Amino acid sequence: MEETTDGIVGNSKLLAQVRDTIRLKHYSIRTEKAYLQWIKRFILYHNKKHPTKMGAIEIEQFLTYLAVKLTVAASTQNQALNAIIFLYKQVLEIELDQLKNITRAKVPQNLPTVFSQEEIKRILIHLEGMSGLANKLIYGSGMRAMECLRLRVQDLDFDRKQITIRQGKGGKDRVTVLPPSLIEPLQAQLKSGIRIHQADLANGHGEAYLPHALARKYPSAAKKWGWQYVFFGQSASKDPRSDKIRRHHLHESSLNRELRRAKKLAGIHKHASCHTLRHSFATHLLEAAYDIRTVQELLGHSDIRTTMIYTHVLQMGASGVKSPLEQLGDASLNTLRPMIPAGFYDDMRHKRYKK
Questions:
Q1: Catalytic annotation on 161?
Q2: Is 144 a catalytic site residue?
Q3: Where does residue 226 rank: exposed (0-12), middle (13-18), buried (19+ CB within 10 A)?
Q4: Among the options 169, 205, 244, 261, which is catalytic?
Q5: Which of 29, 158, 283, 295 gives a 20 to 30 Å CA spacing to 94?
Q6: What confidence tens digit (pLDDT) does each residue in 242-263 have?
């Protein structure tokens, strides 16, 4: 989109306008990247035509292309639709009544993969380093991966053994449990972190990203130790929004990479990610007879029905049912008629043939 035609220049300005609107509404950087990507793909699919010259028909054509030609997942198709709706409603301020008739893709309700407690023990033995500690904390507290990676030093309360999660999914704060067994490793992690933070300050950096207007309200807070990430990146990098050099948090890919390594060493072949540890946390709490409302609060679910999916993972389905055959007992099984001997049907056919 670097050509100098009026349409393409207009689309470039439009994408900048989309970016400004997203930041005005305080959407996450991940949402910003996803929305910009889908809007750009929508425009390119229609030969760089400006969205004001398109409507519901073009939107349906693009969604059909995603579903039929690219066979994307239902959640991916819905994300693309969300980005386009944001473009028309929030940026262009155009109400398309036809959008109400566009059917969203139905997301399949798959049961989550869950590690057994024995599998968790085998995995934990092989988890190492900062990524390993983060994975342990995800299982021990039930946090989402990004909630764990975005933890600040001040969010850990060792005395009360609890973690405050700020601006979780849906922009909500909540409190979850801090496993006592991880207090000492986390304190060691903070000791190494403060040394690196002091070195960053000596090099003229040491600022952490502050959400919303906090950076303007508290100009010196970004360099305070309490605002630094618990799981910090290995090197400082340029912030994509402000172009400042900062030490961001660890990347999510490193958590999954470490978990895959530990799984392999533990001899576990389930297809899983670090989010599977969160699923396992919820399932194991319910197995331990904790109240489902308590589990809901720890996970940060708005709807109890979201938490209830873990009840289907428990030993309540086919694997938890005792067959009526087993209830007869060994004595009853021994009195059953013996199996038909081999060759019985051959003998019967031979007798009929002779007749």
A1: no
A2: yes
A3: exposed
A4: 169
A5: 29
A6: 778 888 999 999 999 999 999 9
Q: How far is CA 180 from the centre of its chain?
A: 25
User: pLDDT tens, 284-308?
Assistant: 999 998 999 999 999 999 899 889 8
300-317 burial: b if 16+ Cβ within 10 Å, else e: bbeeeeebebbeebeeee
Give 192-244 as a DSSP string: HHHHHHHHHHHTT-------TTHHHHSTTGGGSGGGSBSSB-SS-EE-TTT--
As a whole number, mean pLDDT of residues 83-91 equals 93
Query: Is 159's pLDDT higher than 90?
Result: yes
| E-assigned strand segments in 25-161 | 156-157
3-state secondary structure of 70: coil
- Does residue 122 share a domain with residue 95? no
Residue 169: active-site member = yes
At residue 323, does pLDDT exceed 70? no
Structure tokens at 241: 């929004």
Q: Are residues 146 and 288 in the same domain?
A: yes
Tell me, yes or no, whether 97 and 138 share the same domain. Answer: no
Among candidate residues 50, 166, 244, 275, the one labeled active-site is 275
Paired residues of 232 in beta bridges? 249
pLDDT tens sequence across 34-61: 999 999 999 999 999 999 999 888 999 9
Residue 51's pLDDT is: 92
The answer to whether residue 248 is catalytic is no
**Rounded Cα–Cα distance for residues 352 and 20 (Å):** 88
Catalytic annotation present for 45: no
Residues 65 and 197 in one domain: no
**Residue-range definition of the domain harbouring residue 53:** 6-101
- Catalytic residue (one of 40, 278, 279, 284): 278
* Residue 41: inside a domain: yes
Q: Which residue has the higher pLDDT, 108 or 139?
A: 139
Domain count, the chain: 2
- Are 143 and 163 found together in one domain? yes
Domain harbouring 21, CATH code: 1.10.150.130
pLDDT value of residue 352: 56
DSSP string spanning 159-178? TTTEEEEPS-GGG--EEEE-
Give the active site residue among 19, 144, 244, 251: 144
Active site residue 261: no
Q: Share the mean pLDDT of the chain.
A: 85
